[in-house]
Amino acid sequence: MEASPEYTEWGGQLVLVRRRPPPPPGLGEALKAGLRRSCACSLQGTWAQLQALFPAVHWLRQYRPREALVGDVMSGLVIGIILVPQAIAYSLLAGLQPIYSLYTSFFANLIYFLMGTSRHVSVGIFSLLCLMVGQVVDRELLLAGFDPAQDGLEPGANRSSLNGSAAALVLGVQDCARDCYAIRVATALTLVAGLYQVLMGILGLGFVSAYLSQPLLDGFAMGASVTILTSQLRHLLGVQVPRHQGPGLVVSTWLSLLRSAGQANLCDVLTSAVCLAVLLAAKELSDRFRHRLRVPLPAELLVIVVATIVSHLGQFHERFGSSVAGDIPTGFMAPRVPDAGLMWRVALDAASLALVGSAFSISLAEMFARSHGYAVRANQELLAVGCCNVLPAFFHCFATSAALAKSLVKTATGCHTQLSSVVSAAVVLMVLLVLAPLFRDLQRSVLACVIVISLRGALRKVRDVPRLWRLSPADALVWVATAATCVLVSTEAGLLAGVLFSLLSLAGRTRHPRTALLARAGGSSFYGDPAEFEGLAPEPGVQVFRFTGPLYYANKDFFLQSLYSLTGLDVGYAVARRKERGPGEGAGEGDPVGGRDPGSGSGVASLVPAVTHFHAVVIDCAPLLFLDVAGLATLQELHRDYGALGISLLLACCNPSVTDTLRRGGFLGEDQGDVAEDGQLFPSVHCAVQAARARHQELAAANSIL
């Protein structure tokens, strides 16, 4: 194929001639070529696949310690310290002992460090997934004859397991107690959910992230932040409220908090007030002088260290009943294969768990990537999060995903890369092996303060709603619907509602796109909308119709109605009337627009002139992104009906996708060089108008001779 374009003379002007592409390969040849590419093995290809599967292999070689190391270490330390008290709180939601949460945090951080594409997302235990795991664990414990309400931290049968190493928690199969059976259920559930996520990544289902628009992500961040804030209020106040699940979690929690406000712990309230004031002041100062600070202020780390020392010296837990982290057992357990029988029983529950975890992880990865100016790969995120569930399931871990609160803390403390996850894993490892007693007196209210302060950025997004409404009411509706559903129903329902509203918004915009009859600017080749430009004159005898949207099943009726209304001729109705009157009759006087009877009283019907004042219709297909089967059938019907009335239908500026659809649908000839195609497709509106006028003049000359 030649590199230079080909031209031909037509009407004294140069006209583009389409190239002939090579014939498409057959199905057998395509399959052979695909197998050959997939089975080809080379050192360069293997290295590329390794870098794609483990992105850390690529970015570690470009790591700049002088610029990023301090921030990564600081954020890793803060997240690692936050994980310790969170392990106690979130493991109770899952009906498991705290050591299993530490195992989960340790392995998830290491695996995501190797496989994740997001630089700022923190993958580990997440309250929503803990609740979902806890529901399944409670159900299976009840079916097995255990009491789901029994807590491993309370005095009872399992109390002795906390006094030694973690290995003492594992009992024999014949003597499996509540905690033993609970973790078996959780690991089986986690393994199946991870397999689902890995399969989704292999099948390339990460494209769902493309439907997560910026208003959706902002609304989701706002709604999820309110949910997280609500979950931390009980720690800020030091009150005991029931564990709420399912829809309306935020509302139910607030009602419980209002009923229990009188029982607030004064020590926790004062500690929360002091910590919030210090952290907020430190954040404001850090934001104001961020250009002068080479290293972000480690406010969270300093507050946690000081608060732990003060709580220990003041004996806040013993004297005032303040809730603290408590004792955490040390050591590792031997790996164990999840129970296959339990895997079958929880397969359906694992599907919803996998979908929620995937949606959270991809949406958060997209959100942080967008705000920090880099790209993530959705399919690789699915693989990474799936492996964070599959592999740790053999080491007594339960389901993980990206967590918004810890990700915001991670970003706020200066994180640059996932090297911070290794630091966090090292902190958790030190706690597992040595440092557990040091965090015994850390108040949970201090942790809640750190999380609440980290939500400032997401909560401030509510100020963007008025500006978003002025720019696009549809996007503002997506924002509000996502945030409101997150708060009033649940976070996973909010994400689903956001996707649905985004799709409905997109469908609404393509359902009624803008239409216009174009006119010509003087003697030039420019055709525009007279409502947009002045000084345009319609081309005599030719109607140039523009439809600024795709033509598909949902808007084909609007396409026809707009065309009939603007041109003043309902060609379908005119052809039907002509058949009734006989072949010698044309478009009758009083033919209605849109195929409606004038007496229908619908308000849409209107009378049109009897005489057809044009001989050709040119459709400007430049804004026509794609055609589906219904759109193709609509054009075919128009071509047939206009042809029956002696009116030419020409298409201009069709993109290759539309041209290919027209060709495969039989609207054009099978070969690009066919006369039928050359007579119907034109590279510009001006070429189509000239061709229509020349064709009409030839027919008029022939008729005059006859």
Automatic annotation (TrEMBL):
Taxonomic superkingdom: Eukaryota
Gly residues bias spans: 584-600
Positions of the UniProt region annotated as Disordered: 580-600
SUPFAM superfamilies named in the record: SpoIIaa-like
Gene Ontology CC annotation, any one: membrane
Any one Pfam family match given in the protein's UniProt record, by short name: STAS
Gene3D superfamilies reported in the protein's UniProt record: STAS domain
Record's keyword terms, sorted: Membrane, Transmembrane, Transmembrane helix, Transport
Transmembrane segments: 69-90, 188-212, 262-281, 293-313, 342-362, 382-405, 417-435, 479-504
Lipid bilayer topology: Multi-pass membrane protein
Protein name, entry field: Sulfate anion transporter 1
Gene designation per UniProt: SLC26A1
